[in-house]
Amino acid sequence: MFSRPTAPPPEPLCLETALKQYFGYETFRPGQQAIIEAALENRDLLVVMPTGGGKSLCFQLPALLRSGITLVVSPLIALMQDQVDALQANDLAATFLNSSLSGSESRQRQAQILRGEIKLVYVAPERLLTPTFLAFLDQVQAQVGLCALAIDEAHCVSEWGHDFRPEYRRLAELRQRYPHLPLMALTATATERVRQDIGQQLGLQQPYIHIASFNRPNLYYEVRPKHRQAYPELVQMLRQTQGSSIIYCLSRREVEDLSARLQQDGLRALPYHAGMSDGDRSRNQTQFIRDDVQIMVATIAFGMGINKSDVRLVVHYNLPRNLEGYYQEAGRAGRDGEPATCLLYHSPKDLRTLDWLIAQKVHPETGEPLAHEQRVARQQLRQILDYAEGTVCRRTIQLAYFGEAFAGNCANCDNCAQPKPLEDWTVEAQKFLSCVARCRERFGMNHIIEVLRGSKSQKVLGKGHDKLSTYGIGRDRTADQWRLLGRTLLHQRWLDETTDGYPVLKLNAASWNILRGQQSVQVSVLSTPAAIDKGSDKRVSAANQAEAEALFQRLRSLRKRLADEQSLPPYIVFADSSLRQMAQQQPQTLADFAQISGVGRRKLEQYGDAFVAEICNYCQAQKE
C-alpha cells in the first residue's frame, strides 16, 4: 500500500488567474469552479457534464496546480492524442502511454514522468492494470507521487450505460492499491441508474457529485422521414454548411456507398468504419480533424476519440440504437458553443435492421440468446423510436430520459420551430391513466391500449381485463392515437415507466393530478411540415454580419496554414468560437488580442503577431 507524499504544495495561483494563464479563458463555465475546488480538497468526484460543457478542464486544471501526477484513464488512443496535443499546444506538461508508441518512445516518456517533468499521464484501462504498468506506478508513487486518478467516459463502467466495457470494472482495484488516491469519474451521459452503478463499481467514497444540465441550447434538433428526396436534401444541406459535418450510418456498406456517392457529387467526404485497416482509418480521421476534408461518413465507431470543436452538422442517416447513444453522437456538433444542427433520418427499414442486430446478441460460446440484453436493447430501441415520432419539444424528450425536467418550447427544434396544432385530450388522458391504475400498474403501453380498445386477445381475456371498467372505453381512438397520448404523458413526465427491460407503466404524483382534474393535457397532433426560418432573431445588420464572416474566413485560412506547419488539427490552434470573437471585435494590438477567449499565455506568444497582423491588414483594406 502507498500513500501520497505529504510535502506541502507550492503556493497556489488564484483559480481565475490559472484559468487564463493555462487555457486562455476569463471565466469558468457553470459548475467548473466548484468541481475544481472539490478536486483540490482531494475528494472523490462524480461529474456528469454534457459534451462541450468543459469536463476535461475539471481534472486538467487541478492536475496543474497540485504536486505529483494525475493519471487519466481514457478508452481510445485518438482521444488521448487529441487531448495531449491540445494541452501541449498550451505548453502544458502532458503525455500518453499506449500501444501506438514504440518501445523506445515509451521508455523515454516513462523517464520524463519519473523525473517529474509531466503532470498528466493518459493511459488506457487495459494497460493501466497490467502487472508491468502497476510496478511502474509504484515507482512513480515512490519518486514523484500520484495525486489523482481521473476516469474519463466513466459510463463505460456500467452495464446499463450505452458503451459498457468490462475492463473498466477493474479500475476499482486501484482503490485497494492506493487507498488515499482520490478518484474522479467523468462522463457526458449517464442516467440515474448508470450514475449509481458508477459510484458502486468504482467504490467512490462520499463523492462530490455534479450533475450539469443535459441541455445543449446551441444545437438545433430535427427529425425527418427518409423518403426519396432524403439524399438530395442531405447534399443541399452539406453544401450550405460552413464547417465540418459527420454523417452516421448503421452499416459499413452504407458508409462506403454514401461516401462514394457524395464524392461523385463533388463533396469532400471520407468513410470510417471498423472494417477498414487501422492505417486507412487513421489517415481519414487525420484529414478530417485537420480540415483537409469537410465530411466524415461513419459508423458509431467514429467520433468518441476526437475533440473537434467546429462540427456544424451531425446527421444520423439511420435510426440510432438508443437515445443515450444518439445524444452523445449528436453532441459532437457545436462543442465550441456555436450554433450547429443535428438531423435524424428514419425509416421502417431501420427498425428491421436494428431488430436483427438485437437478435444477434447471443452467448459467444453456447449461441444461446442473451435474453436480458435483448430485452434492454429492445426497450431502448422503442425509446429512440418514440423520440423520432414524438410531436413535443425534442429537448423535453431527451432531458426526461436523463431525469431532467424541461418546460418545453425550446424554439430550437423542429417541433418547437413549427409547432403542431394542440388539442385538449384531458379526458382521454384520464381514461388512459385510469386503465393503468385498474391494471394495477403491472403492464406496458401496448397492453393498456388493447384494454382501452376492447381487444379480445388471449392476454387481455386471460387476465380478466375484459371485466375492468376501462375495457373498451377507448374504441373511438385508434391505437396510434393512444400511443401518441402515451408517449406525450411519458415525455412530459406525467407518467413513469420502468427501465429494466420490462417497460411497465407507473403512476406518479402528476398522474393523480390529471385524474383529479387538476391538470389539463394538451397533445400535439401531426400536421404538414412547413419551411423553418431560423436566424430571424439576428440583431446584427446584414452588412456587419457579412464583414465579420469575411474576416472569419480569412482567420480560418490563417489558422489552417499555421496548423499544417505544425501538423496539428486547426481547432487546437484556436476554436471557431475564438475566431468569431476575433472577427467581431477585430483586436489590433497584442494587449487587445490577449482578451479574446481561448488566448492564453502560450498562444499569445506563439500566434498573437500573425493573427493581429491579419486583422490589421483586413481592416486597412476595408478602409481603402
TrEMBL record:
A single cellular component GO annotation: bacterial nucleoid
UniProt keywords, alphabetically: ATP-binding, DNA damage, DNA recombination, DNA repair, DNA-binding, Helicase, Hydrolase, Isomerase, Metal-binding, Nucleotide-binding, Zinc
Name of the protein in its database record: DNA helicase RecQ
Leader sequence residues: none
E.C. number(s) listed in UniProt: 5.6.2.4
Source organism (scientific name): Petrachloros mirabilis ULC683
InterPro entries: DEAD/DEAH_box_helicase_dom (IPR011545), DNA_helicase_ATP-dep_RecQ (IPR004589), DNA_helicase_ATP-dep_RecQ_bac (IPR006293), Helicase_ATP-bd (IPR014001), Helicase_C-like (IPR001650), HRDC-like_sf (IPR010997), HRDC_dom (IPR002121), HRDC_dom_sf (IPR044876)
HRDC domain residues: 545-624
Domain annotation Helicase C-terminal: ranges: 233-385
One example GO MF annotation: DNA binding
Biological process terms in GO annotation: DNA recombination; DNA repair; DNA replication; SOS response
Catalytic reaction equation(s): Couples ATP hydrolysis with the unwinding of duplex DNA by translocating in the 3'-5' direction
Essential cofactor(s): Zn(2+); Mg(2+)
